[in-house]
Amino acid sequence: VLYVGMYFDDITLGYLALTNMILVAPAALIGMSYRDVFYQKITEIYNLKQFKKAKKFFLYCALGLFVIAFILCIILYFLGEFLFSFVYGNQWVLSGKYASILVFAAAIKLIVSPLSIVLNTTNKLKWLSSWQITYFITLNVVLYLSIIEMGLDVVSVFKIYILHEIVLYTIYFLLQYKSISTGKNEGYI
Q: Which residue in 78, 124, 120, 106 sits closest to 165, CA to CA?
């Protein structure tokens, strides 16, 4: 939103703001609720040193979040423009177009973010910090290069952003899976 606000017009920012509000709010609500329940259960299982059960539970939860995200993607990818114009009026059809593109970034975050609490459970806080620093740096580099250096239009920037999110959140998910798969609580590494 900051980059779009700085380098694109206010109209584009307005469409993105509505899109962002519609994509982020439900995902955050679902994600936070899921995370709280997940954290309680995974910590209980992990502290009992039932590592295989913890790994299965982690994958089961990831699958549940994937199903929710998949449904969200299908609905918004195919019906985003229609739904936005139906609910908000024809002038907001561009927000629906943006939503049909950005839904993939919201989906990967919906799957991975609630599970990230597993890094606290397994005491892999350095992994968490390293990923967050890497994410911040790479996101700014990607946005800087695509907007300022390459001068891409907003839809192309969104597509590059989605690719970034999928790659970085896949790495994040793999770190989470590896932390729960190690089978022991080693503390900081």
A: 106
